[in-house]
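User: quick one, sequence for these tokens?
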């Protein structure tokens, strides 16, 4: 497949400077025609800058989209059949007209010249060619044809009031020979027969200097007289102090009864222009809504749109709890937002001595509908984003719970287990302080473990042993029911031996860690009084983390109790073995020695008696050891 290369090409230039090198892509971007290339599936692979001027779509995002996505729906089937016929028939070129969609929602008539690109096997690998905007020339041709057909009615003696447009016929001397009432209405004054054409030209001076006028050196009238070809164009004119009027003008030179005449045909397209402006405004507003503009920016743009399209009107946004000012009657109040969550109302006041028509009211309501759709879309996206962020935070807390549980189960003791819990809790909640407190015999919460932010002038060891002051019995009752409590201020109290640190903490979240009927420990999350951190959020996730921590701690306690029970059982077995076997044997040996005393001499008997006493003392010591092994 061929491609548009960005290699430089040499363009000869006469003069001492010699040849110069010009970037090929920059050269293509200067062309007025769209230069394109597609792949075998009809997706754009190259577009020059003329594409943006023609359609309003940026070239970058357009690449990769199908050219059929821009064809008018009424001409889509014909375009597909045309290209399939070209490909199947083996042709290399295609030339046709169609309509292409623009960014503002309208369509432009374009002329496409395309060449099929084939590989060495003859298979189609893409297309390349140009796109030319012919909307103006096509529209001008159609307008001139319509006005020429109307001009045929003039010599047929049709009454001026029966013509749908204004027609003024001037003779070779450029003086008025015939006119219609529409011309008088447009000009704002009756046109006298025999009046020069310059009078009408002066009256119809365009309000926009960028528009092509009737008079002047290259105006429509001089050009028609010079070339003997009909000229057409659109003018926005203001006659007297009246409103701006949009006219479609055709200047047609012709022959009638062998005499040269010049006809000026005027069509009032003010309503059409207003409808187009409203449609274009709604399209722009919708495009901004889709692009993600904020609600306030969209409302401001909607107010500017209404006041610019509906001349002389005043528009304001009235909040649901606001008050519509008295005075001039309000013509339209259109609600913005849903029924249960309105953002406000668009209040539109009419200009003096004029009432808005039904189409204008419909336009205001359409603007409100666009704003409502944008607001509801923004609200839905916000809710979905919130759900997604909450799900991500839930995953993070779940992973943190797993790491915390592993740390607690592998901790060498309960203090180390509590330290693992508070360290992970403070990291996940992004707070200045995380602590665990347990109730003492008086019901006061005593800090047993703590973890603080590194930027605080405080060591965690300085917090252990402090008590938390709970004002009022309601907070104690809530904690007793295993309910989460949010304090505005964390009151840390010390003693003579352990004074409270000179650091104050503001908002604190106290979460019970109960899984049994015993008095629960609590997890405390708080921030320094001067901290810029946000208060702890996601209370349900913190509660789930605290429950996992309590379960892990209880599991460690159960393992410790199981180990102690195993030790006690082993001691009991040892005691039983000592009592049943060792003591009995020693006692039997003692009896045997006592029976030998009578059979030997005095010296040996004395020694046997001493040995027997030693055995009795040993038996007594073993019994004391057995009693010490028994669990209390």
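Assistant:
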């Amino acid at each position: 497949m061929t491609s548009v290369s960005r290699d430089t090409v040499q363009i000869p230039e006469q003069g001492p400077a010699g040849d110069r090198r010009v970037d090929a892509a920059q050269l293509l971007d200067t062309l007025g025609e769209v230069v394109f290339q597609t792949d075998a599936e009809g997706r754009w692979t190259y577009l020059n800058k003329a594409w943006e001027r023609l359609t309003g779509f940026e070239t970058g995002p357009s690449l990769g989209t199908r050219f059929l996505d821009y064809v008018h729906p009424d001409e889509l089937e014909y375009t597909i059949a045309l290209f399939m016929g070209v490909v199947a028939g083996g042709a290399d070129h295609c030339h046709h007209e169609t309509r292409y969609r623009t960014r503002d929602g309208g369509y432009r008539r374009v002329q496409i010249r395309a060449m099929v690109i084939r590989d060495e096997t003859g298979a189609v690998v893409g297309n390349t060619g140009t796109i030319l905007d012919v909307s103006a020339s096509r529209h001008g041709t159609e307008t001139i044809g319509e006005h020429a057909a109307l001009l045929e009615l003039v010599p047929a003696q049709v009454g001026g009031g029966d013509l749908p447009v204004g027609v003024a016929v001037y003779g070779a001397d450029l003086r008025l020979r015939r006119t219609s009432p529409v011309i008088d209405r447009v000009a704002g004054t009756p046109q006298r027969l025999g009046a020069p054409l310059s009078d009408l030209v002066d009256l119809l001076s365009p309000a926009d200097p960028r528009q092509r006028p009737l008079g002047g050196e290259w105006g429509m009238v001089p050009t028609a007289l010079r070339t003997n070809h009909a000229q057409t164009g659109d003018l926005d004119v203001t006659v007297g102090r009246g409103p701006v009027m949009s006219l479609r003008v055709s200047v047609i030179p012709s022959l009638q009864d062998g005499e040269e005449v010049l006809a000026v045909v005027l069509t009032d397209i003010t309503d059409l222009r207003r409808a187009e402006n409203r449609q274009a405004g709604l399209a722009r507003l919708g495009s901004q809504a889709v692009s993600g503009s904020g609600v306030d920016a969209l409302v401001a743009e909607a107010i500017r749109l209404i006041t610019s399209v509906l001349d002389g009107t005043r528009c304001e946004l009235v909040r649901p709890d606001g008050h519509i000012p008295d005075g001039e009657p309000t013509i339209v109040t259109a609600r913005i937002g849903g029924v249960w969550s309105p953002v406000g109302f668009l209040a539109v006041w009419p200009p003096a001595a004029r009432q808005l028509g039904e189409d204008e009211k419909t336009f205001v309501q359409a603007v409100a509908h666009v704003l409502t759709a944008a607001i509801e879309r923004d609200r839905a996206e916000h809710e979905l984003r919130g759900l997604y962020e909450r799900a991500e935070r839930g995953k993070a807390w779940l992973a943190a719970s797993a790491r915390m549980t592993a740390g607690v189960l592998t901790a060498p003791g309960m203090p180390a287990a509590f330290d693992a819990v508070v360290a992970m809790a403070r990291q996940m909640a992004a707070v200045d302080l995380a602590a665990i407190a347990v109730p003492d015999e008086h019901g006061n919460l005593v800090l047993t473990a703590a973890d603080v932010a590194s930027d605080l002038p405080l060591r965690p060891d300085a917090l252990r042993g402090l008590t938390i002051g709970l004002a009022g019995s309601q907070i104690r009752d809530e904690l007793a029911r295993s309910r989460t409590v949010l304090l505005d201020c964390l009151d840390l109290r010390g003693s003579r031996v352990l004074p409270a640190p000179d650091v104050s903490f503001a908002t604190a979240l106290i979460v019970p860690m109960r899984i049994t009927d015993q008095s629960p420990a609590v997890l405390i999350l708080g921030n320094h009084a001067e901290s810029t951190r946000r208060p702890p959020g996601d209370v349900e996730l913190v509660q789930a983390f605290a429950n996992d921590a309590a379960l892990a701690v209880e599991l460690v306690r159960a393992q410790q109790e199981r180990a102690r029970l195993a030790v006690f059982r082993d001691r009991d077995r040892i005691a039983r073995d000592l009592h049943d076997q060792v003591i009995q044997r020693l006692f039997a040996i003692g009896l045997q020695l006592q029976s030998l005393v009578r059979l030997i001499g005095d010296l040996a008997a004395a020694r046997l008696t001493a040995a027997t006493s030693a055995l009795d003392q040993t038996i007594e010591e073993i019994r004391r050891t057995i009693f010490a092994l028994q669990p209390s």
